[in-house]
Specification:
279 residues; 6-phosphogluconate dehydrogenase C-terminal fold; 12 helices; 8 strands; 51% helix
Length: 279
Amino acid sequence: MKTGIIGLGLIGGSMALALRNIPNNKIYGNDKYNFEKALSLGLISDKLTDEIIPEMDLIILATPVNTLPQLALNILDKIKPETLVFDVGSTKHKLAKAIENHTNRHNFVLAHPIAGTEYSGPEAAFPGLFTRKMNIVCDTEKTKPEILQKALKIFDTLQMKTIEMNSNEHDRHIAYVSHLSHISSFMLGKTVLDLEKDEKNIFRMAGSGFASTVRLAKSSPATWTPIFLENKEPILQALDEYLDNLNDFKAMLYRENHQKIKETLTQINYIGKIIDDIS
């Protein structure tokens, strides 16, 4: 088996490490910035070039989401009939539209492994990143059944829990539960940096609550800027609701409405049960 991975950061690099466990699977890779580092770390065995793309049995696209539509079209132009191609991007609808009329659309699986850390680059990759993580595949009716089954087998090898969803619905829901949390973390970090001019005070006084809440602010801007822009409309809707809630809380605090604050926080506690049930 020959696997090609384009994009060798945290996600692509971790895919490479995890898929090395498949017997007789040679991993090829390419990355404009990270190729040499990924090769030196042993994530891949050789370089994926345009000339050998037709030899690949599996191709994984793990580049920033704004690059995926054109990249996917270029790859679909070159593959053999039985090749599986899937992406790992955090947005889906624009990619789905870009490839919908390609003659090899049925070789493509729109996939989103909901896995990651606040770290980036090939140095951050590790093989267990996807273990017991949720994976969303979209618009599967447009993929050949045998290609889809091949993808599901790969996802099982990675020990992910896979569900299906429409690409539009995916982008809307992921704006609420992933993209908004990253924006909140970035903006919390910005607020503290704006207010607290002495960095030593941040170091001395920041407790575990602050550290866990702002952890995502360490995420790669090169990854997250295109995600925010690609999923602009659902994110703007989510931000409107979020800002309304912040303003409501601000008003309660201003009026020192003890009972209302307590009731609101008690209602919100329910989300903890949902998270506990998931995990």
